[in-house]
Amino acid sequence: MRDDPLFYVVAVACLAVVVILMVGIGGFAKGGEFNRKHANRLMRWRIIAQFIAVILILLFVWFRRGG
């Protein structure tokens, strides 16, 4: 599995989702101007990154099964 470069792409995509989510949650917890200014944008980025990560995971599974 670690020989497959798509595995690393999937891992980076999942890490990007986690980072975006943590920044969004941190901004929400802190509140203030940052949250008002960036909360919706961060959650949109999270949804897009999550969609890309799911597609990559499905591709990874498909290729590993011999698709």
Q: Give the strand content.
A: under 5%
Mean pLDDT, all residues = 93
Query: Pairing-aware structural class of the strands and helices?
Result: mainly alpha
Q: Describe the biggest sheet?
A: none
- Cα gyration radius (Å): 15 Å
- Please give the share of residues in helix: over 70%
Give the overall form. Answer: elongated
Oligomer: single chain
Distance between the termini: 15 Å
Q: Got a strand count?
A: 0
Low-confidence stretches: none
* Helix and strand run: HH
User: How many structural domains does the protein architecture include?
Assistant: 1
What is the number of helical segments per DSSP (H or I, 4+ residues)?
2
Protein name: Twin transmembrane helix small protein
InterPro entries: Hypoxia_induced_domain (IPR007667)
Keywords: Membrane, Transmembrane, Transmembrane helix
Domain HIG1: 1-67
